Design the sequence.
């Protein structure tokens, strides 16, 4: 067993670095950042070339490529409706992806792996802001508990690998992410892209009102994906510990406030209605980001600027975006 200690500092820019999920929201942002930072041996495979649920294919890939750094950003993700309707898919697919990639990374002794989870791992009624030690202290939000369990299993897997194999693997738990490359599907998207798509279409069609799910009172923390990418690289170069690290802004807003910003940015002047018969999900979710702040990193993109940038990207890429 190799030692778990790691000489922290800048990663070798020539190291073979596999970004699993490099075409997704987070993975693509990390890829863009690493390219700008001078990484010369980035490796990514679309699902058509490497299905991460295919265990044999994953092991063969690791054997051929021998990555030295792995960023596990691949996941089956979706909004509240998708998670609520297809819990088996969200549990099974994510468990397969995580287990296959991590088992292969152990088999080929990958020294550095970053596992990306989600803030939905924390209990529905966790004390706010949510600290890392709130994990496994209460019941999960029922609408996405299957996805959360898969992500919790990933965290435990990282911790187990550190104990059993001494590899310097870490986990990062982002808050709600948004930005270029997001999923804007009406049924599969998260809250912010869903709002952008909804208000944009309402403006285009001249609709007198937009109807949103729930009461609008739940509070959500939002982090631009470019900030998330910067945090991931920072952690890879500055953190080596078993506990998952929260990544966010430490600030939250009501869904009504977020919808209002989106409407203003899009230029929609109609009415916003809220369907209280639809589920609200977790009442409040804002992360305690003091661990990351104390390490020396904090988010730099404001919500207003981030939404404006995302709306601009959405409009410029309507023909190609995921809907």
Sequence:
């Amino acid at each position: 067993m190799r030692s778990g200690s790691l000489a922290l500092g800048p990663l070798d820019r020539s190291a073979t670095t596999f970004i699993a999920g490099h075409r997704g929201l987070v993975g693509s942002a990390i890829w863009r950042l690493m390219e700008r930072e001078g990484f010369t041996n980035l490796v990514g495979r679309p699902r058509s070339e490497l299905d991460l649920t295919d265990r044999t294919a994953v092991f063969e890939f690791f054997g051929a490529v021998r990555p030295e750094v792995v960023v596990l950003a691949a996941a089956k993700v979706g909004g509240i409706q998708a998670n609520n309707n297809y819990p088996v898919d969200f549990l099974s697919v994510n468990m397969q992806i995580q287990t296959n990639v991590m088992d292969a990374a152990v088999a080929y002794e990958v020294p550095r792996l970053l596992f990306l989870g989600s803030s939905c791992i924390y209990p529905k009624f966790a004390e706010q802001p949510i600290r890392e030690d709130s994990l496994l202290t209460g019941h999960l939000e029922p609408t996405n508990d299957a996805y959360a369990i898969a992500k919790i299993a990933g965290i435990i897997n990282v911790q187990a690998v550190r104990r059993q194999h001494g590899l310097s693997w870490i986990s990062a738990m982002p808050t709600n992410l948004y930005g270029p490359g997001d999923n804007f599907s009406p049924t599969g998207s998260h809250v912010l892209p869903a709002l952008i798509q909804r208000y944009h279409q309402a403006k285009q069609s001249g609709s007198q009102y937009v109807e949103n799910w729930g009461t609008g009172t739940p509070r959500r923390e939002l982090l631009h994906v470019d900030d998330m990418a910067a945090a991931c690289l920072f952690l890879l170069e500055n953190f080596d510990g078993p506990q998952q690290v929260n990544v966010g802004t430490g600030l939250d807003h009501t869904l009504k406030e977020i919808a209002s910003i989106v409407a203003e940015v899009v230029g929609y002047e109609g009415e916003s209605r809220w369907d209280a018969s639809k589920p609200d999900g977790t009442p409040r979710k804002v992360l305690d980001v003091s661990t990351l702040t104390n390490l020396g990193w904090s988010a730099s993109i404001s919500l207003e600027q981030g939404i404006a940038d995302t709306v601009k990207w959405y409009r410029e890429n309507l023909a190609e975006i995921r809907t």
Q: What stands out?
A: Residues 1-5 have pLDDT under 50 and may be disordered. The radius of gyration is 19 Å. The first helix runs from residue 25 to 36. The first strand starts at residue 17 and ends at 20.
